[in-house]
Design a protein that fits this description.
Shape: globular
CATH superfamily of the largest domain: Spore Coat Polysaccharide Biosynthesis Protein SpsA, Chain A
Structural class: alpha/beta
Distance between the termini: 35 Å
Helix content: 25-40%
Strand content: 15-25%
CATH class of the largest domain: Alpha Beta
Radius of gyration: 19 Å
CATH topology of the largest domain: Spore Coat Polysaccharide Biosynthesis Protein SpsA, Chain A
Largest sheet: 9 strands, mixed
Length: 273
C-alpha cells in the first residue's frame, strides 16, 4: 500500500519549487525557531512566506531579520492566513509550518522526492513535545496512508506542519474554510482525500509543540466543528453515521454542562438529517 501512490505515475516531475507558508499571530518568540528550521533544511525552498495575522507584539520587527516574504493582514484567523499565503505563493508545492512547530533538516528534501514521482499529497511522522517532554501517542493517532478518507472522518490524524501538497489541488478542493474557528485542517484534508490518496513518509521529520493556550482548547464541544466539516460529504452513509454518533456525544455533554447553544446546534443538525 505504501508504494502504490507514487508508482501510479511513471512520469518524473523535475524542478518542483516549494513554497513554505507560516501563519503567525503573536508568536515572535516561537516563529524564529520555525523559520530557522526551514533555513536549516538540506533542500532550501523556493520561498518562505510568513503571514502575520494582525500580531500586536514585535513579530514584524523580528521578521525583518530573516530572508522571508512577509504579508500582513488584520487578525482573521489561521485559515485566512494560510489562504492568503497560498494565493501569494509561486511554488508548485506548498509546505505548511505552524509558527510554534519546527522541522528536522531533511524534511523538505525527503518529502519532495515523493512528489517528484507523482504524489500530490503527503505527510510525515511527527513527535509531540509539551513542557520539554515528548508526549506518547496512542494507537488511534497512527498516521493514515493511502486511500484513507474514512479513516479520517472521526478526527484529524494529519497535522498541518507535516503536510506537503501540490498547489493545483486547491483549484479543485478550494481553500481552507474561514468560517471554521477550529478543525479547519480536518475539513481541508477530508476534501483532499476525496480526490487523492495520502502518502506517508515513515520518518519523524516534524516536531509539534503543544502549548496550553492552543486555539483548540478554547472551544467546548469541538465536535460541532467536525460535524460542520462532515456535512459537506453527505449523503454518504458512513459519514452520516459518524455525524449521528458525534451529535449524540455532543448532546450528552451539552446537557451535562447546561450549554444551550450546543443543544440548539445539535437539534438544528438533527432536523436536517
Amino acid at each position: 500500500m505504501e508504494e502504490f501512490i507514487c508508482t501510479l505515475k511513471k512520469l518524473q516531475r523535475k524542478n518542483l519549487k516549494i513554497s513554505v507558508i507560516i501563519p503567525t499571530y503573536n508568536r515572535s518568540f516561537l516563529v524564529q525557531r520555525a523559520i530557522k528550521s526551514v533555513l536549516s533544511q538540506t533542500l532550501l525552498p523556493h520561498e518562505i512566506i510568513v503571514i502575520d495575522d494582525g500580531s500586536t507584539d514585535n513579530t514584524i520587527e523580528i521578521l525583518k531579520n530573516y530572508p522571508v516574504k512577509v504579508i500582513s493582514q488584520k487578525n482573521s484567523g489561521v485559515s485566512s492566513a494560510r489562504n492568503l499565503g497560498i494565493k501569494n505563493s509561486s511554488g508548485d508545492v506548498i509546505a505548511f509550518l505552524d509558527a510554534d512547530d519546527e522541522w528536522k533538516e531533511d524534511k523538505l528534501k525527503t518529502q519532495l522526492a515523493f512528489h517528484k514521482k507523482g504524489c500530490k499529497f503527503s505527510h510525515t511522522e511527527e513527535i509531540w513535545i509539551k513542557n520539554d517532554k515528548e508526549l506518547k501517542q496512542k494507537a488511534h493517532h497512527k498516521k493514515p496512508k493511502g486511500e484513507c478518507f474514512y479513516e479520517n472522518i472521526s478526527f484529524c490524524k494529519i497535522s498541518p506542519s507535516t503536510v506537503m501538497i501540490d498547489k493545483d489541488l486547491f483549484e479543485k478542493v478550494s481553500y481552507f474554510d474561514e468560517s471554521l474557528k477550529v478543525c479547519e485542517d480536518f475539513d481541508m484534508w477530508l476534501r483532499v482525500l476525496k480526490l487523492t490518496p495520502a502518502y506517508l513518509v515513515k520518518k519523524v521529520l516534524t516536531i509539534k509543540y503543544s502549548e496550553d493556550e492552543q486555539l483548540s482548547f478554547k472551544y467546548f464541544g469541538m465536535d460541532r466543528f467536525r460535524i460542520m466539516a462532515l456535512l459537506k460529504h453527505l449523503p454518504n452513509e458512513k459519514v452520516k453515521e459518524e455525524i449521528e454518533k458525534k451529535l449524540f456525544i455532543l448532546k450528552e455533554g451539552a446537557l451535562k454542562h447546561k450549554n444551550q447553544e450546543i443543544i440548539n446546534f445539535v437539534s438544528k443538525i438533527q432536523n436536517t438529517l
